[in-house]
Each structure stands twice: as structure tokens, then as C-alpha cells.
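Pilot study result, target chain (539 residues):
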Amino acid sequence: MWRIGIVDDDRQVLQGIQNAIPWGELGAEWGGSALNGREGLTMVRDAQPHILITDIYMPVMNGLEMVEELRGEKYNGKVVILSGYTDFEYARQAIHLNISDYLLKPISVPTLVEVLRKVIARLAEEGNERARLDKMQQRLRLYAPYVEQEWIQSFVSGRLADSLLQNEQLPEQYRFWQSTVHVVMGLTIVRDVRVDSFSLKDLKLIGYALKNLVCEVAQETFAHYDYSELYGTYSALLIHTESDGSADRIGRDLRQLAERLIAAAEQYLRVKLRIGLGGTKTDWREIPASAEEAFRTTERDKGALWTRSFQPEAGVGVGSMPEGPMRSIPITFYQELAGAMKARRGAEAARLIDDYLKEFSKWGTTTNEYLRTVLGEMWAILAYSMYEVGIVLDEIFPYDNVYAEWSDLVGIDQSRAWFADKMERICGSDHWIVNGKHRETVEAIIRYIDEHYAEDITTADLAEQVYLSKNYLAHLFKEMMGESVNTYLTRVRMNKARELLMERKMLVYEVASKVGYQNVPYFSTLFKKYMGITPTEII
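Predicted structure:
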């Protein structure tokens, strides 16, 4: 109901307006009345009417003075001015008070009703707009963590456009970076026999658990930090400290943190962590450089679980890099190479490697030992990314044989030729071709589920779509996706249900029906299991 308050020093006017307004027809109710501006202030503060009708000339405090004071108190109701011929022009000058309309005395009932209809229509329109904005902000809050994660990942890997690397372009939550110093810890899960036996789903679960563990341990020592999953078994911990902090103390804290993380990962996750520390940077735009340095140290000192990119005696604030031709593969290159392999764009991956090695040749004299290190880094990325799409690179090229071949390579040109041959054979192998056909089959099933999730879908129905037996399709889907057909179908339905619930246009039973469930309690149970909250908590 819309509340309407009236302020006028003439009791007959007050009574006449109250009797003339068709309250039920307008969906309105009486909000109160007052005989002067001072009393009007009290009435408005108490009743908070949506619409305030007020005369101008009144004793104690006139109408415009009252409205000006109310606006100063952030009163946002609609104000309709009652004015006579003599003060009509004066009232029009009060534009800055955000007056909604004017009623000229003497007031006719049709005019009064017409003005109130227009004002109420504007109130309803503004209410709808506020609801839309509130809904949009709620959705932004829900998706903000995912947007934030993507921004951090792009920034750390050096993929943000130069135009975004300006202080004024920093997201609000990172503005404090301008007054702190920064250092990056590069974290790598060591690939051993146990880790190599993990499925893609297992690796993702380990990655999620590692993130929680790292953040829990880091917050005990550092107030400000950010965690970013990069690719495969690589992640980065960005630490931001006060610029006037003791270098010795910060260095000691970083070392203790690294040691605690290594111990905790082995104790709780039963995985080994290799941690490298980049140089400390005073400018936030150099954080990607610190990340490069961190991962460079882990590749340089593979025998150690904890390494740092600066000499201990140099202090945290110096970042003194070891001399020599130790040049790490850029994180951006890692991301592009892994992405090409996971998308089965073999030719693009081969071009990326060849272009990188050609660029590498411009760096000047490089030892064969270091060249083999670089080849090992790129081979590891190929292995990790292919592993994520169900191909074990060791089954095509046993690592011992590959390592022996590296020993015979001399110079960049031989390395380029060796990698070109390997990439051609990888793309032509049965593993790649057969796996590609399997992936196309699974992708077809995924597309079908995404388009028909609301229907009564069974594994047998899906098998008919791709001309496979039900059991073979179930095995193939689980092997490629790390989860069963039914689990994937349920997850798609739950995600769609969440979107519909957030729109707040349907009741729970309607949403359940829209995503393929007629049993509402069962739907609610599944939704709580997958989303962590009940459907009614969203609505």
C-alpha cells in the first residue's frame, strides 16, 4: 500500500483531500496529516509516507522549508505542492527540491486523482527498477568470486592488457596493493607414482583441497594474500606486506610458511609440494615477474622442495637474481600451450613450441644442459595437459627413452626438429585419434544433455543417440569426464535450477518441473546436496 501524507494549515482542505482520494482504487492508505511544516517534519519522520502533499504558506515553517530539510535527511518520497495563483511561479522555482507535481488551488477531484495516479505509477516503476538492480547486484555478488579468480589468474600469468595495468584500473578490493610490497610463492604438486595414478576428478579435488589448506595456513601469518590456480599442478600464492616491515622478519615468515605448507600438504593430502619464492616487488604491476621468478627457481632446483630467487643475505626487499642464462618459460606460454593441447589443437601447440624455441635462440649462448631443462619443462606441460584429456604421454613416448634422446641433442635447431617430429607423431598416434573420437562422442552427449536436461533422459536414450551400447557409453563417459552420466545430468539440472530460482519468477515446485523433477522433496534434497543450500534459501 502507498502511504499518502498531507500538510496544510486549513483543516477543511485536509479533510476534503482525505475524503476525495479513492484509497482502495489507488491501492493507497492514509499516512498522516499536519497543520504546519514543523509538525509535518515529525509526521514524515514517523510515518515515512511514499507521497507527501503540502501547501507552501503555513505558520511556523512553510512547505518548501520543510521539504528542503527533509531532503537533507535523505527523504526520497514524492512531493506534490499545493499552491495558489499568487505563489505558483514561486513554487516552480523549487526544482532543486525534486518536486513531483503541482496542484493548483482550488483543487478538483479529477485533477487530484490524475496527479496521484501519475505519481504512484512513477513510484511503481522506480520500485521495479530497484528490484531489478537488487537482483542484478545479488547475482553479481554470487558470481563475484569466479570473476575475481579469473582476474587474478589472468594478471599473474601476464595476460592482462596493458591498458588495465594502471592504478585507476585496479579492482576496488585490490587498491591497497599500491601501498604494499609483493612477493609470489610458486606452488607445484610433485608428480610421483601416486599423483600419476590420479584421475582428472581426483586431481581437481586435490587442487581444491590444496587451495583451502594454503589459505588456512597463510592467514595465520599474513593478513593480505591471494591464491590463484594456474594450470595442471601449478598454483600461486600472492603475499602483500607493509612496505616498512623488517626484511629479515618477512624473509623468516616466508620461509616458515613454505616449510609449514610443505609439511601440511604431505600430512593431510599426502602430496609433495615444491615451492619457489619470487623476488619482492614494490610495484604491483611487477607481480607477474615475481611469479615467473618463483616458478623459475622450482625448475632450476628440482631436487629441493623449497627454493628462493634471491640470495638470503640480500634481504627480502632486494630481489637479487642469480646470474647466468637461467630463463624460465613464461607462465603465459604455459597457459597457451596447455590450452592448445587440451583443445586438441595439435598444430597450434606445435607452432607455439617452434616459435618459442626460435625466440629462445635469440637469447645468446645457452648450455645444452639448460636447453634440456627447457625441453623438460615443455614436455611436462604436454604431459600434464594431455593427461587432463585422458591421454598418457608416457604410453606414446616412454619418458626414459625421451630423456635419452635429449642427451644427444645439440643446439636449438636440433631441438626444434626433435619437437616437430614428436608433435607430428603425437597428433598422428592412435591414442590421439582414438581419444579424439571418444571425446567427440562424449561432447555430443554433453551437448544433448545441455539441450534436453528437462526431459526424462536415461543412459539408454543417450546411447541410442551415438549408436553405442549403454554399458560402453557409461564406461566411456566416466573415463573421459571423471563422473557418471547421471551425475553430470544432475549437476546440469541443479545449475539451471539455481539460475531460475535466482530470477525469482517461479515457485520451487515450478522450478523443479522445469528442470525435470516432479518430486519436489527429492529435488530439494538434490539441490541441497549439490549447492549447499536449499531452494527456499535462494528465493
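One observation from the pilot: Confidence is low (pLDDT under 50) at residues 309-328. A full batch analysis is planned for the follow-on phase.
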